Amino acid sequence: MFAAAIRFNFLYRESQLSSFLCVNSSAKSPLEAQLCRVGFRLRKYLAGFLLLSLFAVTDSCAQTVGPLDERFVPRLVEVISADESTSAAALDELSAFWQMSYVAPLLETISLTRNRRRVIQIFELLRANTGQSFDFDIQLWYGWLWHQQYEMAPEYAAFKARLFATIDPRFRAYFSADRNTSIRLDEVRWGGVLQDGIPPLRSPAMVAATEADYLDDGNIVFGIEIDGDARAYPKRILAWHEMFVDNIAQIPVIGVYCTLCGSMIIYETQVGSVNYQMGTSGFLYRSNKLMYDRTTQSLWNTLWGKPVIGPLVGKNIQLKRRSVVTTSWGEWRRRHPDTTVLSLDTGYQRDYGEGVAYRDYFATDELMFNVPDLDTRLKNKDEVLAIILPEYPDQPLAIATAYLSDHQLLQAEIAAMRFVVVTDNSGASRVFAADSTQFVDFDGDDTLADEQGQLWQLSESRLVGEHGQELLRLPAHRAFWFGWYSAYSKTRLIH
């Protein structure tokens, strides 16, 4: 991918609008000046030259996208024509035959033109025909649109396919007109990178703990152990790659780290006889990265673990979650001295320093891409421990990590399944089935006591009682509150 683009992944931020209007423009109209003012605060994360080079699809794209019907697609494409008269005629006709279904594609064309005058004209068209006035804040426009019930034009998917194919021809397959979808297409937004532009680590090199001299004890790692095979994947590396594809204990897995929504999830990729080979699509849904599988080019929701656009939709395909713990390198190495850990030899040139990638994004509560709804019981980027059990997929649970810090031993239940959440002194949380066992004490490290006075030893995969009883680990992972709530608006929250 573009090396500079990887930094913070701010390339499709709405500040691009003001950047287009402000960069290299000394004389500004009042409207242009307003655009500059609107985007000033957001532009602190981006350099204008990146936006101009990466988002400015050439105006010749109007010639590469062919008409699909008598009016919808050609007129929308002609909006960004290099010829001013053609563009003006297209805008006039769209206004004369106005439909709500024009809003989403017009917002997408705004994102893909550097013509300052054209951006202003499109916003004026939107204001005149919707009765809404959000100035030049494209985030507010999207937020309003997502709360409208309207019939999307049948040609919208094909338009989206052809428009974004001008950026990466591989994008065309995502939105073919004959593809099934279980989500609103107007909520699927380009994240600013090409397919696999944020490159996944495939069968990455691992080294012994004693060789990982680049890590400090306080560095954050994602710890995974399957059948005795313990692995550590440092956040400082995965923030640049957002996905690894690996085999752990001979089980094919992917680790998906969505930096925007703060979630790290481990999935088995084998479903029946099929091993799905995943990659990064370049698109987002509710600020959550969408994966794709190489065979069908279906798009998958990473928080749901299932396909949402493409031929696999409706096939009852669900990836199995595996346990992962967010902890410090020192704590993980203490518990697992034989662990392996990602090597710095990834095959890519990146600054893998702790906290380098997405530093500015993580430092504030602001979102890079807005979502339809927020829940103010917690701040947007407050971390929660997210639990969703395969037996009860419609009863998700989120527990604020701040709450868990004060309640290191927490017993809870989802429907008929009881479990215990154990948070050690380092702040790492693990979830275990409790069955009928009632725990009353935890030493903050590795020993629990139940109400009968029996002691239980904590391991990565299970709790083991004095008499050999075993309570198995349940999958759980951390996420930013806004991201989890956007994916599971019916979630229960403990905070």
What does the overall shape look like? elongated
Largest sheet: 8 strands, antiparallel
Distance N to C terminus: 40 Å
- Biggest sheet strand order reads 20-21-22-27-26-25-24-23
Whole-number average pLDDT? 87
Q: How large is the radius of gyration?
A: 24 Å
Report low-confidence residues grouped into runs of 5 or more.
Answer: 1-69
Notes on the protein architecture:
With 495 residues, the protein is an alpha+beta fold. A hairpin with a 5-residue loop joins strand 12 and strand 13. It has three domains: 176 residues, no CATH class; 161 residues, no CATH class; 112 residues, no CATH class. The relative contact order is 0.10. It has an eight-stranded antiparallel β-sheet. Strands 1-11-12-13-14 form a five-stranded antiparallel β-sheet, with no helix packed on it. A five-stranded mixed β-sheet has the order 2-6-7-8-15, with helices on one face. It is elongated and about 80 Å long. Helix 6 crosses helix 7.
Keywords:
495 residues; alpha+beta; 3 domains; eight-stranded antiparallel beta sheet; five-stranded antiparallel beta sheet; elongated
Blueprint of the fold:
Layout: H1 3-6, H2 16-22, H3 30-43, H4 48-55, H5 61-64, H6 72-78, H7 84-96, H8 103-110, H9 116-130, H10 138-145, H11 156-165, E1 188-190, E2 201-202, E3 206-208, E4 220-226, E5 229-234, H12 235-241, E6 243-248, E7 251-258, E8 263-268, E9 270-271, E10 274-275, E11 278-285, E12 288-293, E13 299-301, E14 306-309, E15 320-322, E16 325-328, H13 329-335, E17 340-342, H14 359-362, E18 383-387, E19 397-400, H15 401-406, E20 409-414, E21 417-423, E22 429-433, E23 439-442, E24 447-450, E25 455-458, E26 462-465, E27 470-474, E28 477-480, H16 481-487, E29 492-494
Parallel strand pairs: 2-6, 5-17, 19-29
Antiparallel strand pairs: 1-11, 3-17, 4-5, 4-16, 6-7, 7-8, 8-15, 9-10, 11-12, 12-13, 13-14, 18-19, 18-28, 20-21, 21-22, 22-27, 23-24, 24-25, 25-26, 26-27
